[in-house]
Amino acid sequence: MSARGGLRGSVRAKLLAGTLGTTAIALLIAGIALLVVSLRDYHQVAVRDMQTQLNLLARASAPALQFEDREVAAENLALLALRPSFEAAALYDASGQLFATYVRRGHVGNFPEIPEAEGVRIADGKIYAFVRVISEDQILGIIYARAEYRLQSRLITGLGVVLVVVLMAMIVAVFISGWVQAYLIGPILSIAGIAREVVTRRDFSLRARKMSDDEVGILADAFNAMLAEIETRSTELERSNRELQSEVAERRRVEDDFRRLNRELDARVRERTQQLESANAELESFAYSVSHDLRAPLRSVDGYSEALFEDFADSLPEDARRYLDKIRTSTQRMGQLIEDLLKLSRLSRTDLRPVELDLSAMANEVIDELRQRNPGREVEVTVWDDMRAVGDPRLVRIVLENLLDNAWKFTGKVERPQIEVGSMQEGGRSVFFVRDNCVGFDMAYSDKLFGVFQRLHGQNEFPGTGIGLATVERVISRHGGRIWVKAAPDKGAIFFFTLSDGSARADAKEKET
Amino acid sequence: MPDSQNAITARSPARDARTRVLRIFAYVLAGCALVLAGLSASAQERSESELKAAFLYHFGSYVDWPANAFEDADAPFVIGLVGADDIQGPLAAIVRGRTVLDRRISVRRLEAGDDPGAAHILFIGGSVRPGTADDLLQRARGLPVLTVTEAVYVRDAGIRFVIDEDRVRFDISLPVVQEADLRISSRLLGIARRVEGAP
After folding, report:
1. Is the pTM of this model over 0.80?
2. What pLDDT digit, counting tens, does each position of A360-403 carry?
3. Confidence of residue B12 (pLDDT cuts 50, 70, 90)
4. ipTM of the complex, rounded to two decimals
5. A121 and B41: CB-CB below 8 Å?
């Protein structure tokens, strides 16, 4: 409130000072001008009046001098009693002797002994005049008179009047200023107060009161319009803020839900994985024991079939020998099946012992074995030199054996079979590939390739147990790698695989190389 | 009187030098004052006849004569004296070189039988016999002549000198003056001891 009071006070003080200053200066200038004019007039009137009076007296006194009538002369002079400003007068005859005198009551004569020259002079607040008495071109004598000359006292009185008028005018000006404040400044002060309220309370619903239809009223209207605009905007802003807040809250809630769901999902996945793992382990141990246990009876079937064939070959009819042969073939296939299954289940059980490998050499060894096993086939094999990787040599060899065996097998019906083993760098790790120009297959079935017992071709078309690629996939995933395939019918197939997840192991490999 | 000039000159420099003209004028006036002082050095002791002579001269300034009172523009202003030898000398001295109504002044000694109309102011002295005085006044009646007398027994004169409290004064008879077709200034009436016939 003190600041506000100070503000109001300053406006009022300025207005008051302006009003008073203007009033005082205007009145002082006008008053002093009037005073100067009035004093000048007074002086002129005083001098002229003196001369006129004395001239009249001189004319009236001529007979008195001519006829030596001092009484009449004194009576003439006494007429000056009608003019209170005259203090003393004297008539000198032609010889310069006092002829008649007049002294106003309460004053002293103090007549000059000798008359002065004709004229008017002013000294010590008095006006002195000498006028000759002339008749028929003769100087009969001289009239002297002394009168008050109140220029100084008039000056003081005039100044006093001016000051009093200025003071009264200033008092009136104070009232007028109060009126002006009430009727002109009041509305402005009211608007200023509202503005202060708005600023301090941040309440844009306040409105200035319109007190008049003049510029101040326009100011109030404009101020109110501005406030309304600000209020609208701030309301909109608040509303939009609220909406934004609720939106944010909603999003956060959704995020929380999402996170919770994720956590639940993770937990469920972990649970399921554990269940799956244990189920897998059970299944594998079951498969292992089954395979292991199946081997003994199968060997017995095979052995006795062989014994039967060798010992009773001649006594057996042709049909029986043919059946026996089929039994033996099936038995051997079954044995192979069991072997593969055991191999697969062993993969899950054995520990990895990764070392530095020369994949080029390993691939060449496998190719050599394939050539020895199938001496009649002409296959064009290209193995890139100096392919190196880190892995378990026994398991990686299984990968190469399976992939190359497949390639060898599926290029069997191609005119100029070609197989290529190579590698390339992708994303900072080595990607190896085995490519052939086999019959290929539809990529729509590529996800079935790596499942156990999944086969794309019939047993008659290409022999196989359907376990090979499953084994390959298992080995590669145990190394942290990945295997994928690209193929098209009659365009060949290309298997890609990596032997590391590309991070730590790849770094280690690069350091070693 | 010699120090009057000194007094004025001593005072003059002290004046606010308003005008040099005024100061010069002061010297001139001081000179005039000296002359006047010299002229009227004996005024204090002026005799009765001298005063009366001066009065006779001054009367001319306060009376209007009709135009037919003068023969022409150059005609002198005539003061006629009857039986007043004691006044003729002083009056002649006073009027010398002076004028009345812009006319030169002629002082004439008249006899009892002379035409009173020859004068504009006719003074009848105290030594004139009453019969002669009355005859003169009777003949002057209707003429533009201001009749003045010092004789106590003479009646029907325009102005009559009287001695009042050792001072020379005069009474004015308005009917006589008006019968002479003269107009007398109120300023002169104001000086008169008594005005007869005043309304």
Report:
1. no
2. 999 999 999 988 988 888 888 899 988 888 888 888 988 898 88
3. very low
4. 0.72
5. no
In terms of CA atoms, which chain B residue is nearest residue A60? B187
Question: Between the CA atoms of A219, A220, A225 and A230, what dihedral angle is there, to the nearest 10 degrees?
Answer: 100
Give the orientation angle of helix A2-66 with respect to helix A70-78, to 10 degrees: 160
Total length of chain B: 199
Which residues of chain A are within 8 Å of residue B7 when distances are taken between CB atoms? 113-114
Q: Where are the alpha helices (DSSP H) in A316-424?
A: 318-349, 359-373, 393-410
B contacts of A72 (beta carbons < 8 Å): 190-191
Q: Does B194 touch chain A (CB under 8 A)?
A: no
Distances (CA, A) of A231 to A207, A238, A358: 11, 10, 80
> A119 vs B22: CB contact, 8 Å cut-off?
yes
What pLDDT score does A505 carry? 44
Pairwise CB contact (< 8 Å): A138 & B98: yes
Q: How far is Cα A234 from Cα A239, in angstroms, rounded to an integer? A: 8
C-alpha span between B196 and A386 (Å, rounded): 182
The dihedral region occupied by A117, where left means phi > 0, alpha psi between -120 and 50, and beta the remainder, is: beta
Say yes or no to pLDDT of A4 above 60. no
Q: Which residues of A touch B98 (CB under 8 A)?
A: 136, 138
How many contacts, defined by CB atoms under 8 Å, are there between A and B?
A: 80
Interface of A with B (CB under 8 A): 59-60, 62-64, 66-69, 72, 93-96, 113-119, 121, 132, 135-139
- Identify whether the C-beta of residue B80 lies closer than 8 Å to the C-beta of residue B112: no
